Amino acid sequence: MCSVATTTTAVSKPKRQRYKAIIEYSGHAFSGFQKQPHTPLTVQGVIERAASYLNEPRDRPAPVDVVAAGRTDAGVHALGQCIHFDLRRTTPIAVTNILKSINARVGDIRNEAVSTHRAAAAAGATGTGTGTKPASVIGMEASDAAAATIESDTPLLRVISVEAVTDAFHARYCASGRTYGYQLIAPLATLPQPAKRGPTSWDNRSWRLDRSIDVDRMRTAAQSFLGTHNFGAFRSVGCTVCHAAVMMVSTTHVVTPNDSLARCIV
Question: pLDDT band at residue 148, thresholds of 50, 70 and 90?
């Protein structure tokens, strides 16, 4: 009898590594941060798809779950939003390559999500026979119109930095505070543009008033936000996180870089 030798190749099991990332994005271009069942056009959904391409094995990569320090509604921009996600790989990867890979994919994934959302919403309208555009399509068109006013070479979502962290890090629970900024522009003001444009440049990022800015009154009014307050009246009706309504505001600033612009930072 003849014996046949067989060789068994060991397959490396993917190892999990957590990463912390800082991102910025234009709220006009997305239907909010959190994933939603009726639309793929969310910041969380787009980043999760882009990051999943980095998982191994590549022929059947595991999905990626993104956790943020805080969630933003549709139309709300973010500058310095902290997130974390886990990758599963059999080979090491540099954090610079993670950043470049995600940034290279998010634009195409968002555009694909826009097409998918439009097709599904339009099909629903046709099926009803009403010929009336669903609210989701109208909202999408408004989002696209706002995004179209941004220069074509300006990214709508960008990862600024990535670093490897331990499992003890959690973007939400490790956050020590959050900063909210509101920009107001005086009538007919012309603002200087930054040398390097990004998702949160001046365009469509400010509230242009129809009256002059009274900085002294703004600074006086801003002091009333200091301390611990219950902001439950500003939550959605279906919100179930009771403790999230009570917040402590530690500082407020009204900054005026020039006579045409006022920034309220809370």
Answer: very low
